[in-house]
Design goal:
This protein is an alpha+beta fold and 114 residues long. The chain has helices at residues 2-20, 28-32; strands at 33-37, 42-46, 60-61, 69-70, 76-80, 83-87, 94-96. The protein has a domain at 60-107. The strands form two sheets. Strands 3-7-6-5-4 form a five-stranded antiparallel sheet, with no helix packed on it.
Length: 114
């Protein structure tokens, strides 16, 4: 009786181990291509993903000062497509931010009149 129980337990363990090892993964070609069968021929369809559009950011924009926002120190800026443009006090145009603006006097706040 004891041998029968051990034999049955060993068979159950062997079966469960064997069934776990039969995992299958789809091949790369079957994930990419979809096949459709008809009566006379096999037609393959490929899935094409659209390319993302790349937009260029302009370096200089011209905006009226009413549309711009003002910082605490008095400088004007304008946000466009997630980019910040700062006003040049000499020519009135808005330039895309770069590090050289910190040292340029044209991008600093205008002098306050007292």
């Amino acid at each position: 009786m004891n041998k029968k129980i051990l034999f049955i337990a060993a068979c159950i363990i062997a079966y469960s181990l064997n069934s776990c090892s039969k995992k299958t993964n789809p091949t790369e070609s079957s994930a990419i291509e979809t096949t459709k069968t008809t009566d006379s021929a096999v037609v393959k369809k490929t899935i094409v993903k659209p390319k993302p559009r790349l937009t260029t950011t302009p370096k200089v924009i011209m905006v009226t000062d009413e549309g711009a926002k003002k910082t605490v120190d008095g400088r004007l800026y304008y946000d466009l497509q997630g980019k910040r443009y700062w006003r040049n006090n000499k020519d009135g145009k808005y330039y895309l931010y770069n590090k050289s603006m910190h040292s340029d006097d044209a991008f600093k706040a205008p002098a306050k009149k007292t």
